[in-house]
């Protein structure tokens, strides 16, 4: 033979080299060489793998020696193998030294020889027994190691006659029960004769078959004598063991004809024949099961190259075939049910698709709840998110058939006891579909024989899991295993998704129909663009691209070098990249400099094979101003790495989401937390200030009370001496201080209540027709006594040329509250001045007053427009302006800036010198802004100050004045009367006056019934009234007071020694029976005639809110007095009510706040 001219292992097909280098089977590749000399080499060795070199060194030596020397000594067997290498064709195989070599030709350019061994080898020895060793005693023990029984086949002992035998009755294969049984078969009774007479080719083929883990058999001779291995018994089932050694033509009977044709094809063509996915039915698990195999028939040649038998190998492909069927069924179902307009069409398409795949689903039936067809026009209204079981289910149709089942009922009523109804109800309670016998489900339609199994699968449409039921007949030739169950789950899920989509599509169509008219013009403008996009979408073959382009989040794909392969518009927007500036590395351009390091670190991890990365980054938007809060976009990114076959990064796919709103929410939460903490701190400071301001006057009250007690104690009732005048003067001074501190404490309480209502936005306005000049006069008159005692010159005037006596509609109580504060402050600061002048100016205008010398101080909130509601009327808008000018000490600029805040005064010395809580100006500003106006000041140190404010109102053409100037010289208020702002009576202003000859008294001595549970208050009021010439009766609660009324002159039944009662003063909050119940009982007695006439009743309470005042009047009280009150004002009220004098009604608001709780 000719020597190879090229080096070994220089084969250029790297794909085959890579494959064979990892193949454990010995493999070599040769290239045929045409030669005229039969003695010269006729092939060139191109390649051999490591398996051949490492484990078959004798063959490696043989091939390399031929390659190097061109000729070596060889025995007949080796010469026959070399001839096989030279002359082999596609599919030929040859057994050489225990290795079955299969030849594969590639385009007639080179041949590949792959060996398969039937035994292991040891130290390079062949695993086929030699002729000498076939009779060794150790081969009689098949359980021993194959290594111990294997030996080298000596080629010298092989006769050149191809029909030679080795004379042994044992087969060279590892012992097993089946092999032992094969060797014990009486082969002398068969056509092939005893084993020791078998031809070498037959022995080798049988040995190979018995060593094969896959089902395989040998068909020998024209009689097709079959010799098979143990796995082959699962194919022939009951034919085993009788078929062993017999003619397959006889054993296999009628179905052998197909295989006989294959055998003849192999004999005729001399080539291997492969038959894929042949079907066979096997009894594997106690029932007949369909299986599929790939059959390969390979020719067995004798020494002369003639085909003397066939080697048959079968590889099971059941899983692949079944999976392919199921996949085809799923694809068919998806194709046929797509884009259906309604459920009826969808069910029909579903059944037609299942009809085309009866191999996978032999039978199917669909039942739908009847409620979904009660109103076809609005079917989707049933999908309200509530799962409910209908009573009647309608048959949508069937596919396939069950033997013996002619038809199904058109309707199933769940209230009946039919098999189908019970199966439906049972299926809804089970987590997974469970097979049931068809006979049980379709009873009594199938009552005689067993017809297999069915599965009832509930179909969930939208939120309703009881909408539809699908009955599926199971394939009797397939086990109901995990794969079958998962296949049915996929079928059910695909049907559910499709049906739900149909319903949701119907809903969407209705919504679109409702809105299509309003967007018709926009539709025409976008129609061309939409058509273009639709064409592009239809031309696209990739669902991912469709999703990515329309996704609301950024989607992108980067190559291994970081270049952009794909992106959507959302990603460009998130990364602040304009479409015209897109390039491969544009995504790095706008990343915040502080984040680029982290982004690079994440990218390096992805390049190194990290499967996933989650991180955040910031993008700087260059199209936004630098000081804009939207300039920074916060992005959360998630990336996934796609690797190639060698584990290197092929691409990186990612999504990016805008989390700027989330970050903004976090900032808002942090700010609100800080604000809440600041509010808590401010509240604590507020409470500290209130506590401090309350304790200061309280301390003076206690000390003065102790001083009075000490001054008067030596001159008590037991003493005969008169108290000296100096002690009397000191006592009067102390009492005066007590009164002053008490009113100061009351002022603080009123201010705090007003502040609370302002903070809670509960303070409202009560407009009424008012003369602005009268409000100013009222405010001045309230301080008449202080003005006189301090010798202050006061003037109230109007702007020349204006009629401030005209009636306007404003809230007089709120305006008076502001004026009282400003006038009171001015009087405080004027007392120590050499020149004491106070001037109050009133003016009206149709336009909002402009800022002149007076600088208005705003809270920063938008000015309200209160005069727009109905209660203000519809006349023209009028602005009322008040200016208070004094000749006080004036303020510096720093002191001016600190005014109008909570508990703020001009300087720390102000409180020490003039007193006050620091709330007055703050409340005044809030009230002015509540009334649609503003307040401000101008001041010059050493000269004086001017405070000015204005409010917004409306002209009143039907004037009904809220203030009466009948008593313009009345003194300062010492008590407040509580009335409802819309009650039948108006608050009155009264001056502190003692009982004198001017008081209007009844001719008869009056008796007052005091109903009060607090003994101290009861005792003090009782003593004060007696001092003012009243007789008194006391009761601790309403129940005791009722018993006193039963003994009074008012009671309709005469009683001995009746008590005369002129008026009742009653507290509201009392034990046993409170004032509310008491007054109702009294009025009920009046209505029933049990009391001869109406009794005057006055509520005395600490509840000053307008709602509580209104409720007291509604309950039956004639008037209400709020604590604290002055006895000097209470006495005239009692006289007035006893005498029935209501001539002072409409006198004007005695409460400077305009409501029960309003204070200056």
From TrEMBL:
Acidic residues bias located where?
Answer: 1141-1154
| Residue stretches in coiled coil | 502-540
EC numbers for this chain: 2.7.13.3
Membrane-crossing residue ranges in chain numbering? none
Histidine kinase domain boundaries: 689-955
List, for all copies, the residue spans of the domain called Response regulatory.
Answer: 1007-1138
Q: Which GO terms describe its molecular function?
A: histidine phosphotransfer kinase activity; phosphorelay sensor kinase activity
Q: List-wise, which residues carry 4-aspartylphosphate?
A: 1067
Q: Does the keyword Plastid apply?
A: no
Highest taxon in the source lineage: Eukaryota
Q: Which UniProt keywords apply?
A: Coiled coil, Kinase, Phosphoprotein, Transferase
Q: Where is the composition biased (Polar residues)?
A: 978-995
Query: Which SMART domains does the record associate with it?
Result: HATPase_c, HisKA, REC
* Disordered: region residues: 963-1004, 1138-1160
Q: Which reaction does it catalyse?
A: ATP + protein L-histidine = ADP + protein N-phospho-L-histidine
| One Pfam family from the record | HisKA
Q: Name one GO cellular component term.
A: plasma membrane
Q: What is the protein's name according to its record? A: histidine kinase
